[in-house]
Known about the structure:
The protein is mostly beta strands. It is built from two helices and 13 strands.
Amino acid sequence: MLYDITPPVSPQLQVWPGDTPASREVLMDMARGDNLTLSTLRATVHLGAHADAPSHYGAGAPSIEQRDLEPYLGRCQVVRVDAARGARMAPELLPVPLLAPRLLFATGTYAPEAEPFDEDFAAFEPALIDAFAAGGGRLIGLDTPSVDLFSSKDLPSHARCLAHDLAILEGVVLDGVPEGIYELIALPLKLVGFDASPVRAVLRSLAE
């Protein structure tokens, strides 16, 4: 079983207020008699399901093409949590024991195409990041656009990810994905100098 956990990319896909939404410019079109169809995509790199680079939240930190691909590919645990809107999730919500070095939280607090932009999504307490890293974590992610709250300016959970060199995966869609252990495939593009990359994120069921 393969679960596509990537939201569709279209102008309806919400982006962080002030960021660049997805748009398509059609340069050539077979429907109007051209010999092929050719188009340009314009959008933020923090688009839908995306991998943050450390340079997004750490001065002088690596950009996305400098990241090791290993955290974005491999054994991953999905957990569903009862998360309060606009609140940080405490370490007590971590599964015990941790069964994989990659962990995705289904919070149900964000809708990627909702208008206006959902500002009251759940995020992580920095202590949860610390506890996950102490248990051998390599990648943490969730079904919201940020590991920090919308109102946060100092981004403490991002800072703890930087301190532990944890990979961050944001904006995945986990509706209909049962809790369990999967193989995660969410490779970022090799975008030189960029602070993030969109990914086509999928979860593949592991053989029994």
